[in-house]
Design brief:
Order of helices and strands: HHEEHHHEHEHEHEEHHEHHE
Number of strands: 9
Helix content: 40-55%
Strand order of the largest sheet: 5-6-4-7-8-3-9
Number of helices: 12
Radius of gyration: 24 Å
Shape: globular
Structural class: alpha/beta
Length: about 325
C-alpha cells in the first residue's frame, strides 16, 4: 500500500496540472485538424483517466502499487465504491433489477445494498427448484495443516476419478497444491488457473469429463451441469483478503469482522457451493476444509447457509 507521503502528493499534483495543460493543448490541436481524430480521442481518454485517478489520490483515496515481473502499476480507487455508485448510478430515476441465487445473507439483502450504495430497495425471494436433500451431500473436514489438506484433496479426486472443482482463496495456496500434485500420478488431467486463458481451461474441463479444475476466481460464474462436475472442494472458508480495499471497508465500521469479513465469507461460500447443482438431474458432494480457530468459531454461521445439514468428518 502507498503511504500518505507529502512528496508523493506534491508530485501527483504537479503531474495532474501537467495533464490538464496537455489536454488543453490537444483541444487546440483538434480544432486545427492536425492530428487524426481517432488517435486524438484515444489519447484524450487516457489523459482523462490518468487525471481522474490523480484527483482521487489527492483526496486520500485507496492506493497501492502492483508489481508483476517487469511491470509496475499504480492503482487508485475511491475509498468507498458505494458512495460513487450511490451518487452516479443509483440516484437516477430508472429501475435496476438484481437477480441471483446468492444476493441475500441470512435472508437479508442489506449487505449487498450497503456495499453498492443502494439506500432504498424492494426485494423478494423464491424457493430453489432443486431438491438438495436428494442431490447434494456436504462434508466439513476439520483440517488445518496444509499437508493434510493436500493429501485429503488428492485422495478425494483419485477416488472420484476427477470430475472435481477445487476452489482456493489465493494463488499462493493453489501453486502450493500444484507443486504437490507434480509428485503424484493421475489417470486424468488436472488444470490450474493461470496456466492458460481461463476460458480455455474451463472448456477443457467441460470437454474432458474425467478431469480436475483448480481455480481462485471461479467461485461464481461457472456453469457446468452434468457429469463433468460432481464434486466441489472448498480449500478454506473464503474470508476477504487483507488488502487496501477491504482494510478501508473495515476501518469504516464498528465491528469489522461481523460487518465486513463474515458477510463476505458467507456470500462467497454460497457462490462456491452453487457451482455444483446446475440442473434437476445433477448430484454430487461438497467438501469444506475448515480447521483453524477463526474458521471453527463461525461454523454455526456456515451451517446456516448450507442447503443441507453437513456431515463432520
Amino acid at each position: 500500500r502507498i503511504k500518505d507521503d507529502t512528496d508523493v502528493k506534491k508530485a501527483a499534483a504537479e503531474l495532474y496540472d501537467l495533464l490538464e495543460k496537455i489536454g488543453e493543448a490537444l483541444v487546440f490541436e483538434g480544432e486545427l485538424y492536425t492530428i487524426d481524430q481517432y488517435a486524438l480521442t484515444v489519447v484524450e481518454e487516457y489523459l482523462e483517466q490518468m487525471a481522474y485517478s490523480l484527483s482521487l489520490y489527492r483526496k486520500n483515496a485507496i492506493s497501492w502499487l502492483e508489481q508483476k515481473e517487469l511491470e509496475s502499476t499504480f492503482v487508485v480507487m475511491p475509498r468507498t465504491v458505494s458512495e460513487v455508485l450511490g451518487e452516479k448510478v443509483f440516484s437516477k430515476q430508472i429501475p435496476f433489477i438484481f437477480s441471483s441465487a446468492t444476493l441475500s445473507e441470512n435472508g437479508s439483502f442489506d449487505y449487498l445494498a450497503t456495499s453498492l450504495g443502494i439506500r432504498d430497495y424492494l426485494s423478494f425471494t423464491v424457493d430453489s427448484p432443486y431438491d438438495y436433500e436428494e442431490q447434494m451431500k456436504v462434508y466439513i473436514h476439520q483440517i488445518e495443516e496444509k499437508e493434510a489438506k493436500e493429501k485429503a484433496a488428492i485422495r478425494a479426486i483419485k477416488e472420484s476419478g476427477g470430475k472435481t472443482l477445487i476452489l482456493f482463496p489465493s494463488f499462493e495456496e493453489l501453486l502450493s497444491f500444484k507443486r504437490r500434485t507434480a509428485q503424484e500420478s493421475f489417470s486424468f488431467p488436472v488444470y490450474f488457473e493461470g496456466d492458460e486463458e481461463i476460458s480455455t481451461i474451463v472448456e477443457k474441463f467441460q470437454t474432458v469429463e474425467e478431469s480436475v479444475l483448480c481455480s481462485v476466481h471461479l467461485w461464481e460464474g461457472l456453469d457446468i451441469p452434468g457429469d463433468p462436475l460432481q464434486n466441489v472442494i472448498i480449500w478454506s472458508l473464503p474470508f476477504p483478503p487483507h488488502d487496501p480495499v477491504f482494510e478501508a471497508k473495515r476501518s469504516g465500521v464498528e465491528n469489522a469482522f461481523r460487518e465486513v469479513d463474515l458477510p463476505y465469507m458467507l456470500l462467497r461460500l454460497r457462490q462456491g457451493i452453487g457451482r455444483l447443482i446446475r440442473s434437476n438431474s445433477d448430484s454430487g458432494t461438497i467438501s469444506i476444509f475448515a480447521g483453524d480457530e477463526k474458521e471453527w468459531n463461525v461454523i454455526k454461521e456456515v451451517e446456516s447457509v448450507l442447503p443441507v445439514q453437513p456431515v463432520y468428518v
